[in-house]
Amino acid sequence: VSPDEEGICSGKYFTEAGLVGLLEQAAASFSMAGMYEAVNEVYKVLIPIHEANRDAKKLSTIHGKLQEAFSKIVHQQENSSAQFGKDMVGFCILHSVHGRVTFVPTSLGLTLPSDSCYRLVGFYGERFGEDVLEVIKDSNPVDKCKLDPNKAYIQITYVEPYFDTYEMKDRITYFDKNYNLRRFMYCTPFTLDGRAHGELHEQFKRKTILTTSHAFPYIKTRINVIHKEEIILTPIEVAIEDMQKKTQELAFATHQDPADPKMLQMVLQGSVGTTVNQGPLEVAQVFLSEIPNDPKLFRHHNKLRLCFKDFTKR
C-alpha cells in the first residue's frame, strides 16, 4: 500500500468493516489449511472490535468457531502417535541451480518430497529440454570443473527443520515444529578416504544448516537461502547422536497411549536385534572398550557412556 497513491486510504478495506472482513477471510483460510492455532491468533484481533461494538451475535459465531478449532487441535494432539516420524519430516527440498541460486521450496506437509522432486524435474525439463537437464541426487559438494558447460544441472536434497536445544522447549506441538521455520538441515555421511560409508571408527558426518531469508510458510513457493553453516561430527559424535536417537525412539514407543506392540517390537529389533549390523553392541565395542588416549575425547567418551546408561534404562 502506497500512501501517496490517490484515494488509496478511502478504499473499502480502509474501514473497520473492511479490516473485519479481511480477518474473517484469513481465519477461514487458516481453518481450511488445517492451521487451527493461527485461527486463534486472528480471532484475538477480532474479538476486542466486536466487544467494543457490543456485537453479541458476531461474538457468539467467533466463539463457536474457536471451539471447533480447539477441538480439532485436541484431536490432532491425541492422534500424534500416528504422526510419529512425521513431526520432523523433510517436507522441504533444497534445490540449487548451477551452484548460483539455492532455494528451499515450500511443500508444507501437503505434498510428499518425492512429488515436489518430480514437479521440479518436470518444470526444468520443459524449460531447458530433458536431454540437457541432469539431476545430481546426492548432497555432496559439487566440483564445477567436472560439469559439462552445455548441460543444465540441478541438485536436489531433502532437508528437515533444524532447531537449537533451547528452541525445543517452546516447539512442543506438531504445529510449532512446522510453522515459522527459517533454518533447515541436511546430513552427508563421509569418510576421510573419500567413501560415503565406512567402519564405525571412520564414519564422519557433515551437517549443513541453511538459513532462509523469510520464514515458512510464506506467500512465495520458494525462498532464497541467505546463510550456510557446516558442522563436522567425528565418528564418536556420530555414535552419540545415533544412540540418542535410538533412546528417543524407545522412549516414544514405551510411552504410547494406547500402547502399540508392533511399533515397540520394530524399535526393539532395531535397537538390540543381532541381525542389525553396527547396532548399539558394535558401538559399545568400538568406542567404549578402552579409554581413549586423546584427552579431547574424554568428554565424548563419558557422554557416550551416559547415552548407554539411559538406553539400558529405557
Overview of this structure, please?
- The protein has 314 residues and is an alpha+beta fold.
- It folds into 3 domains: 16-81, Alpha Horseshoe (Serine Threonine Protein Phosphatase 5, Tetratricopeptide repeat), CATH 1.25.40; 91-233, no CATH class; 237-312, DOCK DHR2 domain, lobe C (Methane Monooxygenase Hydroxylase, Chain G, domain 1, Up-down Bundle), CATH 1.20.58.740.
- The chain has 9 helices and 7 strands, in the order H-H-H-E-E-H-E-E-H-E-E-E-H-H-H-H.
- It has helices at residues 16-32, 36-52, 56-78, 113-128, 174-177, 235-254, 261-272, 280-287, 298-313, and strands at residues 92-97, 101-105, 133-136, 152-161, 181-190, 204-216, 222-233.
- A 6-stranded antiparallel β-barrel has the order 1-2-7-6-5-4.
- Strand 1 (92-97) and strand 2 (101-105) form a beta hairpin.
- The longest helix is centred in the N-terminal third of the chain and has 23 residues, at 56-78.
- The protein is extended.
- Mean pLDDT is 82; it is low at 81-95.
Quick overview of this protein structure:
By secondary structure, the chain is of the alpha+beta class. It has helices at 16-32, 36-52, 56-78, 113-128, 174-177, 235-254, 261-272, 280-287, 298-313, and strands at 92-97, 101-105, 133-136, 152-161, 181-190, 204-216, 222-233.
Key attributes of the depicted protein:
314 residues; alpha+beta; Serine Threonine Protein Phosphatase 5, Tetratricopeptide repeat; Methane Monooxygenase Hydroxylase, Chain G, domain 1; 6-stranded antiparallel β-barrel; 7 strands; DOCK7 protein; guanyl-nucleotide exchange factor activity
